[in-house]
Amino acid sequence: MADNRDNRQRQPRDEEPKEFEEVVINIDRVSRVVKGGRRFRFKALVVVGDKKKRVGVGVSKGADVQAAVTKATSVAKKNIMEIPIFNATIPHDVNAKVGGAKVLLKPAAPGTGIIAGGTVRAILNVTGIHNVLSKSLGSTNKVNAAYATLEALGQLKPKKDWVTTIEDAKESQPKASKAVKETPEEKPEPKKAAVKAPAKKVSKPAKAAAKETK
């Protein structure tokens, strides 16, 4: 009897699309000294994002690598934040400092790409930002750099908060109340021309008498 199992076709499973993309940035082995020796555990730094506007970072420890990554991913999803994006880049310059790590982000022209490295690049890749300039200064601690990048992204303001349109300017102008009527301006009265008094006529006999007296 032929085995019909070979003729069966495996149907692919309908996997649900993941809402967030998970990226493991760093895994460290940490130890704790206890009575009788040391206990080793693992610390994972994970970033999650939907490549649109939402991103989150999480750090957690576990007995093994898989447990640490799972816990860190859960923490990152609980701390999701939404950032504003303008023309595939950030709206304005921002900088932040966490511990000794400093991160500076600047908007870039289309086609520039993500100019960043290490932890900053891993976070920006899952945010939906395609053009940005960055600089990481100070400490190279990856956890502090990740939180500094997240804090810098949290300082971004949307376009409506820093751009004033003509309509907004018109609305901001105070409107004159209808009850108050404008008083007509008082026009100055025209100056009257000065009237000269007529000169007095002196008769001829009077002139002759005046000469004789002299």
How many strands, what sense, and barrel or not for the largest sheet?
4 strands, antiparallel
Number of distinct helices: 6
The assigned structural class equals alpha+beta
CA-based shape = rod-shaped
**SSE sequence, one letter per element:** EEEHEEEEHEHHHH
Could you provide a short overview of the structure?
This protein has helices spanning 65-78, 118-124, 142-154, 159-162, 166-172, 204-213, and strands at residues 21-34, 37-49, 54-62, 81-82, 94-98, 101-107, 114-115, 132-138.
Could you explain the architecture of this structure?
The protein has a 4-stranded antiparallel β-sheet with strand order 1-2-3-4, with helices on both faces. The protein has 6 helices and 8 strands. It is rod-shaped, with a radius of gyration of 42 Å. The chain has about 210 residues and is α+β, with helices and mostly antiparallel strands. It starts with 20 loop residues before the first strand and ends with a helix. It is about 25% helix and about 30% strand. The longest helix has 14 residues. The chain has a domain of about 140 residues: Ribosomal Protein S5, domain 2 (2-Layer Sandwich), CATH 3.30.230. α2 packs across α3.
